């Protein structure tokens, strides 16, 4: 039987080989690996000679103009920089009775970025004055990196200056003496091992972590250290080790970025001051450095980054001076979209995908055209990389979009914008306890995310801002419920104020968008403690252009567990019976508590109670807050709708109309349904099933 099995297996293999041969004969297949799908050995075989970080020698040879405005700008920076081993005052640690205490300390000046600027000027102009200055800056900077770590400090939270340092080393490698090469590489290796050994738990100024982050921590340096040192023959074993580590780390995070973007776009976190700020640096730098080092264009195989403009578009409120929804760990001082680096991100993406994804590249260029051109000095060389020209093309989208991985339903129609939170599938990076939360904007933020990212030393961040009470969702008050931690200082003895205890787990049950309406049905139950509820279902309906209807079915394990329906506002709401009105900026909204019929509407907030929970006000007591509190979008009030009668199961029906809408929504009830008549449609909710029909 065994021999028979061998014969059968052999026959199958032979047939398979013949079939494969036929396929290859009829249509030759390229069996060479591509990009991040290659093994380390295959990738290393493709490495070019120095320079190979961001630019090849051929690219430098093509950049011989010294009159370019960006070239003039960086030359002025380098000319005014001494490059000397000087110090400045910055936040760091000092030893007090054997314990690290944060204080302003004298730190060596980090010239990493200026060293790269000087090396760049040398490579373009050939002026050896800048070669000498670059080497001087490299020496003084790496000495400073080691000094910092030996004295309880870190060079900088972000790794950008060290990436620039490594780029500078690579660019002038062929023009340095063997002594300079050996000293700089050996000293940087000492730094790499010291920062590897440092603990972020004892020194929070050290940026540690890789998976699920922005990719700007110390781990990001290893890819560039590998490119700078591999094959130099100074420390062969370490050069190989760090090159392979860098490849592994970058491949890992690139694959995670591919996964998080999905078919929609996005950048690990839905919080825009992360996703639209420092996070894309990793991707853009990796794409550029991979091509310069290996000759491979990752845009041909990794198309995920071309979806980034999609995510930007849906978070963009307004026109040329965009606002955003204020989601997650963002700053709510003015709710301006994070655009400091956005122009550069979009132009780089337009450049990278001009050939492989021309339509998406054109969309990136279109969004960039709405912003004031601005390039960061952090990666000053970007304008010299952007060569592929693509004509801007206006984006055309539907009225709503569900971002599956980020658990966000975006809605836009006739100047009304809304965001509804459900189904977050990632790690919860910079997310709050806010499943079911919604934000509404129409000429102003009429339902907003309350609180703000501010001074991280205050209790506000932990006890209010990230908690459910700061969002437009549902509270269920169970006495002595364990507090759900976020980050920042924690005041002992605190209990949950009725909120959720998990950031992920909610599920989208239904989503539909048409030319007349959008709705989403969300199961929020998994985000709450199972000890207090078995059901929290929210249906969110947008009837264009001005009406929202929200239907909630909420259970509590005990009738005494009070349920509260929340809506946060910047200005004081006016409450009249079961109706209320809200204004913010030029915008206005009217609210109608349609069910329960006997619901109590309570106003919380005002001076001394802006961020009220657990019998105290969780203020941000910092100078920035004081500056913006009068004109920001951090919220000062909230409305709480509470059933008058205590019972296990409750339902809420609330209608909201924005702008000049004058129609008063009406509720009709029968045994199985609630029907809400609005100006443009009837919205029919099934009491028993999780379904809605818009007629």
Helix fraction, binned, reads: 25-40%
Mean pLDDT: 91
- The number of distinct β-strands equals 25
Alpha carbon gap, first and last residue: 69 Å
Dominant shape = elongated
**Low-pLDDT segments, ≥5 res:** 1-31
In the CATH hierarchy, what is the class of the largest domain? Mainly Beta
Number of domains: 3
Provide the structure class: alpha+beta
Note the beta-strand portion.
15-25%
What count of helical segments does DSSP give? 18
CATH architecture of the largest domain: Distorted Sandwich
Radius of gyration, taken over Cα atoms and rounded to an integer in Å: 29 Å
- Please outline the major beta sheet: 8 strands, antiparallel
Placed side by side, the strands forming the largest sheet appear as 9-10-11-12-21-16-15-14
CATH-defined fold name of the largest domain: Beta-galactosidase, Chain A, domain 5
């Amino acid at each position: 039987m065994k021999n028979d099995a061998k014969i059968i297996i052999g026959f199958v293999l032979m047939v398979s080989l013949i079939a494969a041969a036929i396929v290859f004969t009829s249509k030759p297949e390229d069996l060479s690996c591509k990009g991040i799908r290659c093994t380390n050995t295959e990738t290393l075989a493709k490495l070019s000679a120095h320079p190979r970080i961001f630019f090849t020698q051929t690219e430098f040879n093509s950049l011989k103009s010294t009159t370019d405005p960006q070239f003039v700008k960086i030359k002025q920076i380098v000319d005014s920089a001494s490059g000397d081993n000087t110090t400045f005052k910055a936040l760091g640690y000092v030893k007090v009775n054997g314990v690290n205490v944060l204080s302003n300390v004298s730190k060596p000046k980090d010239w990493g970025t200026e060293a790269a600027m000087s090396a760049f000027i040398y490579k373009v102009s050939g002026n050896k004055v800048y070669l000498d200055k670059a080497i001087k800056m490299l020496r003084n900077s790496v000495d400073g990196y080691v000094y910092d770590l030996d004295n309880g400090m870190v060079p900088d939270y972000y790794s950008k200056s060290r990436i620039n340092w490594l780029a500078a080393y690579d660019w002038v490698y062929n023009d340095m003496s063997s002594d300079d090469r050996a000293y700089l590489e050996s000293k940087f290796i000492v730094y790499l091992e010291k920062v590897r050994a440092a603990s972020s738990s004892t020194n929070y100024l050290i940026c540690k972590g890789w998976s699920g982050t922005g990719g700007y921590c110390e781990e990001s340096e290893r890819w560039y250290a590998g490119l700078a040192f591999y094959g130099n023959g100074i420390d062969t074993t370490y050069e190989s080790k760090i090159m392979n580590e860098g490849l592994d780390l970058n491949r890992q995070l690139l694959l995670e970025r591919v996964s998080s973007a999905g078919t929609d776009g996005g950048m690990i976190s839905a919080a825009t001051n992360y996703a639209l700020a420092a996070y894309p640096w990793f991707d853009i730098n990796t794409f550029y450095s991979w091509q310069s080092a290996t000759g491979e264009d990752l845009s041909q195989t990794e198309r995920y980054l071309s979806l980034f403009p999609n995510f930007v578009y849906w978070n963009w409120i307004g026109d040329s001076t965009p606002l955003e929804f204020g989601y997650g760990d963002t700053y709510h001082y003015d709710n301006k979209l994070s655009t400091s680096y956005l122009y550069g991100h979009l132009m780089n993406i337009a450049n990278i995908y001009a050939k492989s994804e021309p339509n998406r590249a054109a969309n990136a260029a279109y969004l960039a055209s709405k912003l004031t051109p601005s390039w960061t000095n952090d990666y000053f060389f970007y304008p010299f990389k952007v060569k592929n020209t693509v004509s801007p093309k206006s984006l055309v989208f539907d009225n709503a979009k569900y971002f599956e991985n980020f658990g966000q339903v975006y809605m836009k129609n006739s100047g009304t914008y809304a965001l509804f939170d459900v189904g977050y599938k990632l790690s919860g990076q910079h997310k709050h306890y806010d499943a079911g939360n919604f934000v509404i904007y129409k000429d102003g933020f009429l339902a907003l995310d309350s609180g703000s990212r501010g001074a991280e030393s205050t209790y506000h961040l932990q006890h209010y801002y990230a908690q459910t009470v700061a969002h437009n969702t549902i509270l269920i008050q169970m006495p002595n419920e364990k507090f759900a931690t976020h980050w920042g200082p924690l005041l002992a003895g605190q209990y949950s104020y009725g909120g959720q205890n998990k950031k992920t787990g909610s599920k989208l049950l239904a989503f539909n968008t048409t030319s007349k309406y959008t709705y989403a049905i969300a199961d929020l139950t998994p985000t709450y403690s199972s000890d207090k509820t078995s059901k929290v279902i929210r249906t969110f309906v947008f009837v264009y252009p001005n009406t929202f209807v929200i239907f909630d079915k909420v259970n509590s394990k005990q009738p005494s567990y009070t349920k509260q329906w929340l809506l946060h506002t910047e200005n004081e709401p006016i409450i009249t019976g079961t109706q209320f009105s809200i204004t913010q900026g030029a915008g206005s909204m009217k609210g109608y508590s349609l069910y329960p019929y006997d619901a109590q509407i309570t106003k919380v907030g005002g001076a001394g109670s802006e961020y009220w929970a657990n019998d105290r006000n969780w203020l941000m007591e910092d100078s920035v807050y004081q500056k913006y509190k009068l004109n920001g979008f951090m919220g000062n009030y909230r409305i709480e709708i509470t059933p008058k009668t205590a019972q296990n199961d409750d339902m809420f029906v609330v209608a909201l109309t924005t702008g000049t809408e004058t129609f008063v929504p009406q509720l009709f009830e029968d045994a199985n349904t609630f029907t809400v008549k609005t100006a443009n449609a009837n919205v029919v909710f099934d009491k028993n099933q999780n379904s809605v029909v818009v007629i």
